[in-house]
Amino acid sequence: MYDNNNQTTELSGQSTDRQIARREFLQATMTASATTLALGAPQSLTAASPHGGMAEIAARKIAPKADTCILLWMAGGMAAPDTFNPQRYFPFEVGIPVEKIISTFPAIDTVVDNIKITSGLENIAKIMDRGTLIRSHVLPDLGHILHSRHQYHWHTGYVPPQTVAAPHLGAWMAKLLGPNNPAIPAFIDIGQRLEGVGEKEELKAFHTAGFLGSEYGPFVLPFPQNAIQSVKPPKGMTPARFEKRNKHFRELIKRSPQAEFASDYHQESLIRSMENAYRLLSSKERSAFDLTLEPEESYKNYDTGRFGQGCLLARRLTEAGARFIEVTTEYVPFVSWDTHENGHTTVAKMKKEIDRPIAQLILDLEERGLLDRTLVIVASEFSRDMMIEGVPGSNARDQSRAKTDVLKELKHYGQHRHFTGSSSVLMFGGGIKKGHLYGETRNERPLMVTQNPITLPDLHATIFHAMGIAPDAGFDIEERPFYATRDGKGKPHMELFA
Amino acid sequence: MFRIASIHQPDMPTSHLPPSVLLFLLISLVKTPGYADEIDFAHEVVPILKKRCAECHSNGTYKGGFSIDNRQAFLKSGHAIPRQPTKSELISRIHSNDPDEQMPPEGDRLTPMEIATLTRWIESGIPWEPGFSFQKQKWQAPIGPRRPPLPKGPGNPIDRIVNQYFSSHKIRWPDTVSDDQFYRRVNLDLIGLPPDQKELQRFLSDPKPNKRVQLIRDVLSQNVHYADHWLTFWNDHLRNDYVGTGYIDGGRKQISSWLYQSLHDNKPFDQFARELISPSTESEGFIRGIQWRGNVNASQVRELQFAQSISQVFLGENIKCASCHDSFINDWKLTDAYGLAAIIADRPLEMFQCDKPTGKTAVIKFLWPELGSIDGSLSKSKRLERTAHLITKPENGRFARTIVNRLWKRMMGRGLVEPVDMMANRPWDEDLLDFLAIDLADNHYDLKKTMSLIANSNIYQSKSRVQNQIPDVGYTFKGPIARRLTAEQFLDSIHRITQTVPRGKRVNLPLFTGNQAEQSKAVLSSWIWSQPDSNRAFPGEVVQFHSTWESKQNPPNSVLTVTCDNSYQLTINGKPVKKDDHWETIESINLTSYLKKGTNQIRIQATNLGNTANPAGLYVSLISNRQHQQLTWMVKEGQSSRPAVVLKDQQIWQQVHAKINQQEQIALTQKQPVQLRVALTVSDPLMRSLGRPNREQIVTTRDDQLSTLQALDLSNGQILMEILERGAGQLINKYPSPDKLANHVYQTALSRKPSLKESDVIASILGQKLTRESVADFLWSVIMLPEFQYVR
Fold it and tell me: Are the C-beta atoms of B309 and B287 separated by less than 8 Å?
C-alpha cells in the first residue's frame, strides 16, 4: 500500500488521508530537490495536476475564524441603490426626468440606527445587527460589460483570460482546507444550471477548480429540491440493490487476475475515490441534502422559490459540516437581477425571493450556535444605475432596452444599466463586526465610493483571512506562481473583523 | 516540525492541537509582519539580485566566497540575517560609499527603492521561491537535430536504445504482454476504441508470427477511427471546441473541419504545423486565439496568445511568464515574447511590463536566432509564412522532439521529458528522444510512422510496470506505465460494449472538402411531402409516411439517413427509434438492431411547424450492407394511403446536402455502419466530470487519477445510468444467455474472458434470467474496474 512508501510515511505521520500526504510529499520534494533542480533534472511532478508540475507555495499560517463559508450570489448585477444603498427616491410617475431619480424604492429603517436599506427588505432590516453592510465594494469596468466575464472575475479573482485555468473561490478552500466533514463535498454550488447555449456556455469557465484539479471542483446542485438525488443511489435503484452492486464490484476487483496492480497509484486512487463516493451515498449525513426532511413550518419560512430552498439547503449542509457553499439566484441573461427594462417591477419580485430566506438563514445559524464559525456573504458581480453604463467615462456599450430621458411608462422605471463604481456586500458571522456599516458612496449620481473602498482582491483576502487562508497562498503552476488573490496582493480589511 | 507547517490543513483542526503547538502558532502569528511588509520575491527581489549581484556571486562565480545561488547558500554566508536588516552586512555594504566596502563595487549605487526592497526582504525573513536558483542548468537542451549512434544489433532501434539504458541502470526487461492485452492496448492507444469481439478472436487464433505487425498496420489504416480518436488530443492542444467562450460573438473560430480532415489524411506534421501557423481561412482559428470582450490584461492580447500558443504546442517552451516580464524560470525575456507577438501584429505593438506601458515598441524576433530571422518589413502573411518555416525546418530539432515526446507519453504513460511542455528539461534518455525526433524527420513527419515504430517495439509490447507513486524527480524508466482512459475513450468504450450510440449533440464536420465534395454532392434520395409545392406546406400539418422493406438476411448492417423540416418521429416494426426537430442536424441511425429478416415496417410521422404556409420536406435514405435501398414511401390519409410526392424544389435544403452526402458516403464505404464517437459531440456534464476540459486554455495532459467527484458521478449520475440501462436492454436482446453476455462484455471491455473465479461472481450478479437491472449492474461493475479504466 501507499503508506509503505518511503517519504510519505515519514512526512505525514499517521495521516490516513492520501491527498494530504501527497501534498506534504510534494512540498517536501520541492524543497528537498532544489539542488537537483539546479542540476537540470526534470522539475516535473506531473501526475499531481492535469497541467504538469504543481507545487504549493509556502504561505503564512492564519488561525481560521470560520469553518464554513456561504456565498449568496445575486447573479446578474444587484442594483445597490434599489437594495442596500438607498438614495434619492421618486415613485413612478409619467413625466419625471430619469436623471432626478437614483432609487426606485424608498428607504426603510433597520434595527441599526445608522443603517437604512430599501423597502422590500424588511426581514433583512431586522437582522442588520448581526453583520456588516459594505457599500464601498469597487469592481473594475472591464471595458465591455458581460455578466459571464464579470462573474468569472468575481469568482476567481482574476480577469479572464489567464494562461492557466483559474480556480473558483470555493475550489481554493476545497484544496487548501479540505472538507469540513469528509462525507460532505468541500465545494457545493447550488442553483446554477450550466447546460445551455450562448452565454451560459461561458459560465462553465469559472465553475471549475481549474489547475487545482477536478477533485476540488464544484458539486453542482442546480435544483435544491432534487439535491438528495445527487447523493442517493441512482433513480430507481433500491438501497439493497445499490449495496449489492457495490459488493459485487468489490468482489470482482478482489478476484481480478491483475492483482499485481493493487499497489499501483492509479488503481489505489480509483478505489479510494469509489469508496469515498460509496460512503457519501450511503452515509447518514446525506439526509442533510433532503429538503423533505425539514419541518413544514421551517421549510415554509424559506420557500420563496429555488433561491430560498437553496438557502435552506445551505443551512442544512452547514449543520452537517460543509466547507464552501454558493447559493445563486441563478444567472439567466435578462432575467432576475439582470434588468434591462422594467427593473423596478423585477427587483420587487427578486426582493420577495431573497429577503425572507437570507434573514432566516442568519437567524437559524445563530440559533444553532453556528453563525460565529460560519461566514455568510451576499454579493453580486456589479451594481446598476438608471443612467450610467460601467463608470463615467467608460467605453462600455449602453445596453438598456428601455432608453428614455423622461419616464413614460412603467418599463422605463428601474436600473437598466450596469454600474461598477460601487456595489453593496453583506457579511455575517465568521468574526465579522455586528451592526456595522463600512464604506460610503456619494449621494448624487454617479454613486462613486467616497470612503473605505474595498477592491475585489481585498474582499477576497478578507474572506480568505476569515477562513484561515493567506492572500498569497498559492501554487507554482507551469512554473508560474498563482495565488489565491491576484498576484498574492490582496489585503484583508482587518477593520471589518470584530 | 513538519506537521506544524500544515496547521491549516484539514487533518489538523486547531482545536485538536496540543497546547504547546497552539502556543507556537500564536507566537508565530504575533511575529508575522503586517500585510504592508508583504514582499514578492519573484517580482521584486529577483530582478535586483539578478541585475546587481548575480554576475559576481552566482552560477559558478562566487567572489568573496559569497553565493546567492539559493537560499541555503545565501544564508550560509552570514551576510544577511533573517529579520535583522540592521545586522546584515549586505545592507550596510549597499549603503556604504567606501570604495573598499561598497557593493556592488562598480556602476551606479542601488536606488533608495532597491535598497528599501532588499531591506524589507530581509525584514520579512528572506523568503525564497521554492526551487528557485540563480545557478544555470548545466545541461542545455540542444536545438538542432542529432543522429545518435544506435547500439549495434538487430531489432527495433527503440529497443536497442532502451536495452542500453536498461543495462546501464541495471533494470530487467519486463515480460511481454499477452496477445489479448496487446490487442486492447493497440486499439485504445491508436484509435481510442475497445476490442471488437470477433476481430479479437480472429487475431488470437491467427498463427502468423508477424500478426502484431499486421495488426498495428490495420489499426493505423482505419482513417476515420484514427481521426475520431486523435481529434480529442488535438482539440485539447489547439484549444478548439464546438461551443463555449468566444464562439457566440465571433471572438473565436473553430478549426474543426480542417483538423478532422488533416487527421483523416494523416497530413505530414510539418505541413500540419505550417498550416496552423501560416493559415488558410479554415485553419486560422488557432493563431487567432480567443478575443475576450472588453479590456484584457496586456499579456493576454491576441498577439501574445499567438506567441504563447505556438511556443507551447510546437516547441515545448513556456513564454507565458515572459509575456509579462523577463522570466525567472527560464531565459526568455519580455523582448522574446513580444518579438514573437510582433510577427502577427497588424500595427506596431507597444510593449507592456506587468500591464504597465514601457514606451517601447516590440521588435520582431524569433526565439532562436541561430535558426534564422524574420524580416520585419515583410507583410504579415509573409512573416507568418517565414515563422512557419523556421519552426518546421529540419534544422529545428526541437519541433520534432516536442511532438515525439507527446506521442511517447500517450503510448507509454510518461514522457521522455516531463512536463511535456518544458522541453528544455533533460530527457531520461537523450539518445532515444533524439532518435525518435530524427526518425520522424527522416519519414517526412509522418506521425503514424512514429506511432507504428513505438507500437512495434518490444518495450511498448511489454507488461506495464506497477507504479507505486506519482513518478517524480529522479524518475527511472522501467517500462510502460498505466494510462487512464480519457473521457472520450471511456464513453466510446461503453457505447461499444453496450452497442449504443452517444446521444449528445452531434457536431457536423464537412468530412470531405474541396474536390471530393464537388464530385459527390448528389444525395441518394429525394425530399418528399404530401403535395408537390415545396414552399407551401400547411402550418402544423402532420404527415404519416410509411414504407416497407424486405430483408433477405438477418440482421443486415443498415444505416438510415434522415432529416425533416421541421420534425419527425421514426418507428420501425412498432418500436420507437428516434425523434428530432432540428432539420439542420442530419441523423445517421444504425438500424441493425431494429430490423429483422423478412418484411420491415418503417413509419415516420412528420410535422411542419409555423403559423403560415412554409417549406416542409422529409429526406430519408436507407443503406444496407453498403448498398443503397430504394424505398417506396406512402402517405396515409384516413384509412387509405397514396404515394408520397417528390418535391419540385429540392434546392431549398441545399445547405445540408453536403452533410447528408457525407453520412451516406460513410455508410456506403465503411466496413461497419458508422458509429458516432463522443469526440464529435458537444461536451456534457459527465464528459466534463471525467476530464474533458473547457478548452479556453491549451491542455496537453489530462488528470490521470479518478477523483471523488468523478466517482460520485459514476456511482449515481443519471447520464451514465441511462446509457447502461439502454445498453442492458440492447444486450439482453442480442445475448439471451448470461454466459454469452458476460463473455461479450468481458471481451469488449477487458479483451479477455472472465476467469473461473470471476464467473462465480458474475453468475450471482446476472442470475438465471437476465433482467435490465441485473445486466445494468453487471455492466457498471465491469466499467468501474481499474482494469477497464486504465490501459495497461
Answer: yes
State how far the alpha carbon of A301 is from the alpha carbons of A71, A309, B64, B192, B748, in Å. 20, 9, 75, 53, 54
Which residues neighbour A244 within 8 Å (Cβ) at sequence distance 6 or greater?
A: B777
Mean pLDDT of B57-64: 80
Give the single-character DSSP code of B282. Answer: T
Same domain for B454 and B363:
no
**In the predicted model, what is the mean pLDDT of residues B441-465?**
97
Q: At what angle do helices B447-455 and B211-220 cross, to 10 degrees?
A: 150
DSSP A180-215: SSTTS-SEEEES-----STHHHHHTTTSS-GGG-GG
Given a contact cutoff of 8 angstroms between Cβ atoms, the answer to whether B621 and B527 are in contact is: no
A351-377: per-residue pLDDT in tens?
999 999 999 999 999 999 999 999 999
Q: What is the pLDDT of residue B694?
A: 85
- Which residues of chain B are within 8 Å of residue A174 when distances are taken between CB atoms? none
Strands A324-328 and A219-221: unpaired
- Co-location of B365 and B413 in the same domain: no
Number of domains composing chain A: 2
A413-423 pLDDT per residue, tens: 999 999 999 99
pLDDT of residue B12: 35
Q: Return the closest-CA partner of residue B215 out of B177, B175, B187.
A: B187
Number of domains composing chain B: 5
Inform me whether the pLDDT recorded for B183 exceeds 60: yes
- Taking the mean position of all CA atoms in its chain, how far away is CA B434? 24
Whether the CB of B318 is below 8 Å from some CB of chain A: the reply is yes
Kindly state whether residue B505 falls inside one of the protein's structural domains.
Answer: no
Give yes or no for residue A182 having a pLDDT over 90. no
Give the H or E element holding residue A463. helix A456-467
Which residues constitute the domain of residue A34?
2-43
Q: Which of A36, A58, A253 sits opposite B474 (nearest CB)?
A: A36
Shared-domain flag, residues B98 and B46: yes
Q: Do A274 and B290 touch (CB under 8 A)?
A: no
Residues A12 and A90 in one domain: no
Burial status of residue B372 (CB atoms within 10 A of its CB: 0-12, 13-18, 19 or more): middle
pTM greater than 0.90: no
Pair (A332, A407) in one structural domain:
yes
H/E segment holding residue B764: helix B756-766
Q: Is B504 exposed, middle or buried (0-12, 13-18, 19+ CB in 10 A)?
A: middle
C-alpha cell at B467: 507504479
Asked if the C-beta of A66 comes within 8 angstroms of chain B's C-beta atoms, the answer is no
A226 assigned to some structural domain: no
At B691, the amino acid letter reads: G
CB-closest option in A41, A198, A208 to B473: A41
Is B6 an 8 Å CB contact of chain A?
A: yes
B530 shares its domain with B613: yes
